Amino acid sequence: MASQILPLELIDRCIGSRLWVIMKNEREFVGTLLGFDDYVNIVLEDVIEYENTAQGQKKTKLAHTLLNGSNIAIASFRL
Amino acid sequence: MTDARAEPPTEVSPPPPPPPVQLTGSPTDFLKGVVGKRVKVRLVSGVDYQGVLSCLDGFMNIALEQTEEHVNGVVTNKYGDAFIRGNNVLYISALEAL
Amino acid sequence: MDVSGTGIQEPFDLIRLSLSERVFVKLRGDRELSGILHAYDGHMNLIMSDVEETIMIVDTESAMAGQGVVNVAKRKMEMLFVRGDSVILVSPPSRT
């Protein structure tokens, strides 16, 4: 057994709370976690997207959003 | 019939789950709910496609109708239909309530 | 789920219905193709004929100055195999 608790079980405990997702490419999302699957595709609501551009940081508000797991690097949360 | 596996005693079997009144929020449920709705599809490159989601598959390949391509907030193209290969997709965001 | 009565149940149906038609294809690396679609597979590998390729070449200096595309190169090819992993978008001819 690799560990007593699986990484995805921890994320599962975050459902309903705010999650900070850092993508592989200078892009971040903060939103309320609604759900996810085994590929770590993530569904968020009340989302803010942060983009780092040459003009500085750009914020975009999004409603219900599905993030493609293949671009996700890190998810940060509080338990 | 004596095979217990075929027909487990009723007192042991868990109660049937209540019918899902509301979708649970998993990616699959999100995708079921968002078909037919207006969505924004953002690619990894930063290009956006806004349109009505006709359908999608497990690779996140997407078919859109009445599609507008947005680059830096400017409409750069319009397509009646568009197939988007799933590996390019960063996110799918609903533009209307599910 | 057939939303608009067009017979599309999955994304690949859109491609299937475009066989033998002229399609527009957007590829990675700022390339665009317009040609007749002859074959495709699950990877989105494509065979196209009578293709016109458009390559956008952005001049980095003028891009810094906030200008748009500087150079557009075009060429024609009789028959093409397109590897699926570079495909971003396929748009069939309008069905309306």
Automatic annotation (TrEMBL), chain A:
Compartments, record wording: Nucleus
Any one Pfam family match given in the protein's UniProt record, by short name: LSM
An annotated Gene Ontology molecular function: RNA binding
Superkingdom of the source species: Eukaryota
Source species taxonomy: Eukaryota, Fungi, Dikarya, Basidiomycota, Agaricomycotina
Gene giving rise to this polypeptide: LSM5
Gene3D superfamilies linked to this entry: 2.30.30.100
Protein name, as recorded: LSM complex subunit LSM5
Keyword entries, A-Z: Acetylation, mRNA processing, mRNA splicing, Nucleus, Ribonucleoprotein, RNA-binding, Spliceosome
Cellular component aspect of the GO annotation: Lsm1-7-Pat1 complex; spliceosomal complex; U4/U6 x U5 tri-snRNP complex; U6 snRNP
Residues of the signal peptide: none
Biological role: Plays a role in U6 snRNP assembly and function. Binds to the 3' end of U6 snRNA.
Entry keyword annotation includes Transmembrane helix: no
InterPro entries in alphabetical order: LSm5, LSM_dom_sf, Sm, Sm_dom_euk/arc
Sm domain span: 6-79
Transmembrane segments: none
UniProtKB/TrEMBL annotation, chain B:
One Gene Ontology term of the molecular function aspect: RNA binding
Location (main, coarse): cytoplasm
Keyword Ribonucleoprotein in record: yes
Biological process (GO), any one: mRNA splicing, via spliceosome
Compositional bias (Pro residues): 11-21
Hydrolase is among the record's keywords: no
Subcellular location: Cytoplasm; Nucleus
Signal peptide per UniProt: none
Keywords per UniProt: Cytoplasm, mRNA processing, mRNA splicing, Nucleus, Ribonucleoprotein, RNA-binding, rRNA processing, Spliceosome, tRNA processing
CDD domains: LSm6
Domain of life, source organism: Eukaryota
GO CC annotations, alphabetized: nucleolus; P-body; sno(s)RNA-containing ribonucleoprotein complex; spliceosomal complex; U4/U6 x U5 tri-snRNP complex; U6 snRNP
InterPro entries assigned to the protein according to its UniProt record, in alphabetical order: Lsm6/sSmF, LSM_dom_sf, Sm, Sm_dom_euk/arc
Region (Disordered): 1-27
Function: Component of LSm protein complexes, which are involved in RNA processing and may function in a chaperone-like manner, facilitating the efficient association of RNA processing factors with their substrates. Component of the cytoplasmic LSM1-LSM7 complex, which is thought to be involved in mRNA degradation by activating the decapping step in the 5'-to-3' mRNA decay pathway. Component of the nuclear LSM2-LSM8 complex, which is involved in splicing of nuclear mRNAs.
Summary of subunit composition and partner proteins: Component of the heptameric LSM1-LSM7 complex, which consists of LSM1, LSM2, LSM3, LSM4, LSM5, LSM6 and LSM7. Component of the heptameric LSM2-LSM8 complex, which consists of LSM2, LSM3, LSM4, LSM5, LSM6, LSM7 and LSM8. The LSm subunits form a seven-membered ring structure with a doughnut shape.
Similarity comment text for this entry: Belongs to the snRNP Sm proteins family. SmF/LSm6 subfamily.
Record protein name field: U6 snRNA-associated Sm-like protein LSm6
TrEMBL record, chain C:
UniProt keyword Phosphoprotein present: no
Localization per record: Nucleus
SUPFAM superfamilies tied to this protein: Sm-like ribonucleoproteins
Chief location bin: nucleus
Domain named Sm: residues: 10-96
Pfam families: LSM
UniProt keywords, alphabetically: mRNA processing, mRNA splicing, Nucleus, Ribonucleoprotein, RNA-binding, Spliceosome
A single MF term (Gene Ontology): RNA binding
One GO location term (cellular component): U4/U6 x U5 tri-snRNP complex
One biological process term in Gene Ontology: mRNA splicing, via spliceosome
Keyword RNA-binding: yes
Superkingdom classification of source: Eukaryota
The family this protein is said to belong to: Belongs to the snRNP Sm proteins family.
Assembly description: LSm subunits form a heteromer with a doughnut shape.
Function as written in the Swiss-Prot or TrEMBL entry: Binds specifically to the 3'-terminal U-tract of U6 snRNA.
Listed name of the protein: LSM complex subunit LSM3
Organism: Crepidotus variabilis
Lineage, uppermost ranks: Eukaryota, Fungi, Dikarya, Basidiomycota, Agaricomycotina
Name of the gene: LSM3
